[in-house]
Model the fold of this input.
Amino acid sequence: MNAHATVGRIPTAAVAGLIADAMVKAGVPAADAPKIAELILEADLIGADAHGVFRLPQYIQRLQLGSTNPRPNIKVNRTAPATALVDGDNGMGHLVMARAMEAAIEMARECGVAWVGAVHSNHAGAAGVYAALALKADMIGMYAAVANANHMPLGGGAEPLLGTNPLAIAIPAGTEPPVVLDIATSIVSYGTIKNHKLQNKPLPEGWMIDPKTGEPVTDPQKSVQALLLPMAGYKGAGLALAIGLLAGTLNGALFGRDCIDFNAEPDKVTNTGQFVLALDPSKFQAIDTFKSEVDRHSRELRSSKPLPGSPDAVRLPGDQRAKRIADRAANGLALPPELVVQLDKLAAELSIKPLRER
Done:
């Protein structure tokens, strides 16, 4: 057992260092590696555990196979005062989407709102990370993506033709935590399914079904053949479809039957599509007034009457996120032993320091 497994928490600097070193070994320029590491680690900090360092072995594999471009020439093509299309040149999605939100914020300062689509991008991790980039500029941020594999049927369907197509919205506040909604349009993210499979944890009923029988699938090892159910039935499927057309088709990226499953075909280019939106609240009212009103509503909603027998107080989207960031930044990450084994193996293959030596 290594030292970190004994203390139970791994310092965030150690995790970021491992990610950055692995990226450089896979051909990413030294200037880009820390930025990618920061955005991957952010997913772990906010509690999107299946979208952070958990994904590192897969990202490295794709860089090594050449299906992700380690040295992209990312181009922002401004198509109108408040719109742009980013060509990611098949680079790491984290870099592409950070650049897209940067462009959106820049344009929204001028126009009040901006919509930026992305084509030739890749998996970028947790949706909330990119929506929240707008908060630093006192703006409202939105992010949506075509997921990198289809696991979900249309309402009443038995074929996996939709991704878990996530949506995130971040709204700035004053002294209260910002409101950050980050949801997959499936009942649970596919990363969570992969995490259950890695740790061999049974899946709760209602997450996945057998497409041949319609029966629930609870064995995580059978998840590859199963269908992931949409949230709220046909409503979740409809939302995934709309996001797919807006984040994929609108940008010239892949959607529906055209999508490449980056789990099953790691050597193929995915042409992932995403979009971000930035909205400047100061174009509607004084920014401090808006933020203090968000605070007031947050406090009123949070202090509303909880359901009898509910284990928690009333929760707002973003409350847990703020607590997790504070805790994990200070005390480190509690990574599953199965994941630490995978990361140690990756470190050995790349001849870089494993986590326990950082």
